Every structure is written in C-alpha cells, then in structure tokens.
Amino acid sequence: MKIHPKHIGFDIDGVVADTMEAFIRLAHEDYGIENITPSDITEFLAEDCLTIDPYIIEEIFNRLLTSPLEAGLKPMAGSMVVLKKLSQKAPLTFITARPQKDPIAQWLEANLGPEIFGACRLIATGEHDSKGEYIKNMGLKYFVDDRAQTCILLGKQDIIPIVFSQPWNQGKHNLTSVENWQAIHEMCQIPAESSPSD
Ligand SMILES: [Mg+2]
What we know:
CATH architecture of the largest domain: 3-Layer(aba) Sandwich
Helix content: 25-40%
Bound molecules: magnesium ion
Strand content: 5-15%
Distance between the termini: 28 Å
C-alpha cells in the first residue's frame, strides 16, 4: 500500500528545507563559530543543546525566518525532485509552525517554480501544537515532520505521522521514520516517468 500524494503533507524546516545546514553555515561564516556538527544538535531548540550565545542563535533563526533566500537556506537533498513528482498527482501541502508566511512562500516559489508553487497550499500556524487541526481540515492522512513532540501529538489525533530523522528526534519516539527523501519517494505513489517517445 502506497500513499496517494493527495493524502500527505509536509513540515518545512528540517524536512523540506535544510535548516540545520544553514544554521551551522551562518554560525561559522558570520559569527566565527567553527565547532558545531549536526550530531551536536540533539534538541529541537538549539539553545537547549549548544553552548553558544542564545542571542546569536536567535539572530540566526530570525534571519532564516524573515529572509530565507538571502540567508541561503537550501532544500533538503532530493526534496525538490520528489515534490515535483508528487505535484503531478495532487497539489502539495505544507504546514509550518513559522509565524510568517510570506518569506517562506517566496523561498518555496523560488525552489518549486511558479507553476507548482501556484497550485500548492501553504499554512503558517505560528505554533507547533495546532498543526493537527489544519492537517485534518486539508483532508490529509499522513504528515512528515522532524519535531518528535509534534509527531507524537498527531498520532493521537487520528493522523499518521512520519518522523523525518534528524539528530534532535533520535530516541524520542517509536513512530515510523524516514532517513531521506528517497524513502518518502518509495512510500508514495509517484507517476511513472514519461518515456522519451511521449
Ligand atoms: Mg520542522
């Protein structure tokens, strides 16, 4: 049994966007902090696991929230290829806890292209724990997120959560998880490649 693309939705940071890569890169390039590795980020809130100045952490996250394109936020490896394939079967749905919609809308449009972006649904909830309500209202059954607490809560709301593996969700859940976008691709019904003669 594979997931029909109309039934799956996606969180953005840590799933579609490689927010951790951008955080580590900006900390290094702009604040001279050289010793952070992905495995150091063992908590969802970076200030809970890193010894760097919380003011710097906040400033970097603010840049990623308000100007993701300028900050060089990159798509997660493989994400755009898979999302573009899924979009051939159903509009894409993204539900983020970001408080502002416009900056991440511009980022999505730049990465997906105007046509696919134009058909997609994007909600910025401003908080983590209300996602379930939006997911249900949009007719979704499955949701991919990197925050263990969010996934655990969704599991109690009749939604099937899929945890996108990240250092900060390791050992914090016993739900279905995926390591990368190839695994999401394999879980979903993807339209067959068109043959060269088409
Ligand atoms: Mg996330």
